[in-house]
Amino acid sequence: xxxPREDKSKRAAWMERGFRYFDAPAAIIIVADNSLTIQSTYxxxxxxxxxxxxxxxxxxxxxCIENQGxxxxxxxxxxxxxxxxxxxxxxxxxxxxxxxxxANQVMSVRExxxxxxxxxxx
Length: 122
Ligand SMILES: Cc1cc2nc3c(=O)[nH]c(=O)nc-3n(C[C@H](O)[C@H](O)[C@H](O)COP(=O)(O)O)c2cc1C
Fold this sequence. Notes:
By secondary structure, the chain is an alpha+beta fold. Helix content is 34%, strand content 19%. The protein is built from three helices and three strands. It has helices spanning 8-19, 38-58, 73-80; strands spanning 26-33, 62-66, 86-95. Strands 1-3-2 form a three-stranded antiparallel β-sheet, covered by helices on one side. The radius of gyration is 17 Å and the shape is globular. The mean pLDDT is 94. Flavin mononucleotide is lined by residues 18, 64-68, 90, 108.
């Protein structure tokens, strides 16, 4: 975003934008029932979150998985009507990308697969 590290007000404004789902027109909040154990929830939540992102892409929409979007969980609970019986896990900002927007020019690289896999028996 070309924001100098010392420019605190611009950095704060960018951070706030993350709290507003980067101004995307919609956001999906992923929640899990409190009755589920954290261990069993991890896998399910990861699967559903990624599948939502992939399905969105199929329809020409793009997404940003966000923890920032659930930071103010009390506000979220109130406005989205999320009961206390649900654990709020993460948010997915959803919309059509503006490719002229500087942050959307960032292309992240992937860690080489051999750095994240331990091959056994070969
Ligand atoms: C669980 C999780 C939480 C994230 N929270 C944030 C966040 O709060 N703010 C943010 O800008 N990016 C956040 N990210 C990163 C963005 O979603 C990131 O752009 C994306 O995961 C990387 O996709 P890419 O490598 O294809 O660009 C989060 C990612 C994950 C998986």
